[in-house]
Amino acid sequence: MSQTTAKSLSGHTALVTGGSRGLGLLMADRLAARGCTVIIAARDADELASAQKKLLHRRPGVAVHTSVCDVRDQEAVHAMFRTAHDTCGGPDIVIANAGIIQVAPLEAVGAKEFRDAMDTMFMGAVHTCLEALPYLRASERGGRLAVISSVGGLLGVPHLLPYASAKAAGGILAEGLHAEVAASGVSVTAVYPGLMRTGSHLQAEFGGSRSKEFGWFSAVAGAPLVSMNAQRAAERIVNAVIRRRTRLVLTPLARAADLAHGLAPAVTTRLNGVVARMLPQAAPGRPRLRRGAEVEPPEGAVSSRFQTWGSALNERAADAYNQRDT
């Protein structure tokens, strides 16, 4: 990276929701590398403190602030932006990234899980975007806004249905906002990442046959041929936001899925049905969902050996990207 590029955002203020771990933390790091004053927002104060420490260690001299905020609460989001503006100016760049992942067959989820996903990833993005826009419109540098959707938002991924539904809504929100606010000089980027090695399997929630669901998800999310290096993903996302791109789909597999669904939606949907039959069947009853950190398969199990082989990189990412419980 050239010195000019590294300093090209000096004087800007950037706010990243869901910035305490995983992709959010990495995007905050890439913004800090370009000279931004960075504000990371999340619900957990301890996670935020740990993330701030990691960023300051990696980027000494860069201003990194934290904001405890639940994006499901619009009043809290309003207060977050007001405080951010009063403290740091701007913001000039906002990335709506807060999210949750629920991995379970349909039989193991109900309306509550869909509401939880929509409240966090869709309404959370709505609150973030609506509260950010007055500040972005006022930015002398021309505001930039991004909404992080997912390849799951491009087609209905089996065993991720609440997540995919909310991410699809978020993608539509971003693309609609781009059209609505373009005349004001604010750019909006819709981002559709594929699988990334962020260590998110430890924070994801699993239902049904929880150990088996954890096994396949953690293995696939960490497989090098299927998933993407999270640092490279964060770099590409930040570049797309800086360049005011309208849409970014990451990973060859995600682009192929997007193209296939656009050209042959019925065939793609039928193939998804084949994939669904290959995934673990629901356990009897409907036990509550649990975080991946609580449901790792027992040592010696076949799923445990497969998970260990498939997600070795993902396990290392969990340490690097603040996914372990503090």
TrEMBL record:
Annotated spans, Disordered: 285-307
Keywords tagged on the record: Oxidoreductase
Residue stretches making up the Ketoreductase domain: 12-194
Keyword Transmembrane set for record: no
SUPFAM superfamilies for this protein: NAD(P)-binding Rossmann-fold domains (SSF51735)
Lineage: superkingdom: Bacteria
InterPro entries hit by this protein: KR_dom, NAD(P)-bd_dom_sf, Sc_DH/Rdtase_CS, SDR_fam
A Pfam family that the UniProt record links to this protein: adh_short
Membership in a protein family: Belongs to the short-chain dehydrogenases/reductases (SDR) family.
Protein name: SDR family oxidoreductase
